[in-house]
C-alpha cells in the first residue's frame, strides 16, 4: 500500500488531483488473506468481496485523501459488445448445449483460442487463476504508467 500511496501523492504533485485505484475481488495483501463478502444466503457459497473497501481505508489513512469505494456491476464492467463478443457468446451457448446433450455434466465451456473446449469443474475450482506478473497484460499496464502496487 505504501507504493500505491506514493503513486497517488506523485500524481497529486504533478497536478492530477484524482486517482482511480482498481482492486480485484480476490486481492489480498502479501502474506494476508482474501476478504469475503458478508451475508451469504443459506445454501449459497460465500463470495469474495470487501478488498476495495480495505484499500480505500488504507489510502485515506496513508494519504489523508477523501476516498470512496465502488463495486461495479456487470453492466458497468462490460460496455457494448463487439461483433467478436457476440460470436463468442453464440459459440459458448452452442458448446454448452452440446455438452448438456452429451451428458457432460460437471464441466464448463472455456475459450482456448481458437477453440471452445470443455473443462471439468474440479479443475476450474482447484486453484485460483492469477495473472502472471511477467505477462504482456501487466507489462502493457506498466508501459501506460499504471501502478500495480509492486
Contiguous low-pLDDT stretches (5 residues minimum) are none
Mean pLDDT: 87
Count of helical stretches: 6
Order of helices and strands: HHHHEEHH
Strand content is: 5-15%
- Strand order, sheet with most strands: 1-2
* Overall form: globular
The structural domain count equals 2
The helix fraction, in percent, is: 40-55%
Provide the structure class.
mainly alpha
Measure the end-to-end span.
9 Å
Gist of the model:
The protein is mainly alpha-helical. It is built from 6 helices and 2 strands.
What can you see in these coordinates?
The structure is a single chain. With 150 residues, the chain is mainly alpha-helical. It has two domains: 1-79, no CATH class; 80-130, no CATH class. 42% of the residues lie in helices and 8% in strands. The protein is built from six helices and two strands, in the order ααααββαα. Strands 1-2 form a two-stranded antiparallel ribbon. The longest helix has 19 residues, at 83-101. It is globular and about 60 Å long. The model has no long low-confidence stretch (mean pLDDT 87).
